[in-house]
Structure formats: C-alpha cells, structure tokens
Amino acid sequence: MNIVVRIIVTAVVAFGLSYILSGIHIDTFLSALVLAIVLAILNAFIKPFLIILTLPITLITFGLFLFVINACIILLAGKFVRGFRVDGFWWALLFSLLLSVISSLLYNEDKASNKQDS
User: Of the candidates 8, 4, 27, which has an alpha carbon nearest to the alpha carbon of residue 78?
Assistant: First the structure.
C-alpha cells in the first residue's frame, strides 16, 4: 500500500509542477500517473547503475553529481511517457529537485498523520 501512496503523491506533485514550471509539460493526470510509475521503475533499476558508474565524480563533487543523475532520469522518462515533455536539462534539474523535496514533505506528513491516528 505504501508504494501506491507514493506513486499517487508523486503524480499529484508532478502534475502540479507542470502548471508552475513553463518548461515541464504534462497533458493529463493519467500521464502524470504513468510518469510516476516510470520514475519509480527507473529509480529502482537504472539509477543504481548510474550511481555506481559515476561514483568517482560523485565523490569529487561531494554528491552534487547525483542532481545531474536525477535530471537525466527525468529526461529519460520523457522519452518513455507520452504526454510528458521537458524543454531541456535545466528544466529537468529544477523539476527533479522540486519533485523530490515536495513529494518527500507530503509523504512524510502523510505518514506522521497516520501515526497520530493510531
């Protein structure tokens, strides 16, 4: 059930960011849901390999290169998901940063409210 909540939160945040950021285009909420699923799959399978391959530069930049990897994952998702388009690398970087921060805040707040209900 946790994964379903995470995907829905990610889809809602991504769809909302597409209205705020002019370089991010998501046609429908269904496209946002597909995007969230594709991002989950890419982050689970492709991202670990990219992190291992770029470990030296990640260490030299004190982990800041991970932001570049996140932007590349967003650009790659744009190739797979119909109805999702990113206008460039810098938009992907900004989108990935905001998506990560806002999704984490919302997901953690949801977990905190569920603990209070128990």
Answer: 27
Q: What is the mean pLDDT of residues 64-81?
A: 96
| pLDDT, tens digit (0-9, with 9 covering 90-100), for 79-101 | 999 999 999 999 999 999 999 99
DSSP-assigned letter for residue 24 = E
Integer CA distances (angstroms), 32 to 24, 55, 68, 104, in order: 11, 31, 22, 17
CA distance 11 to 83: 13
For residue 33, the 8-state DSSP code is H
81: Cα separation from own chain's centroid: 13
Mean pLDDT of 14-31: 96
Strand, helix or coil for residue 49: helix
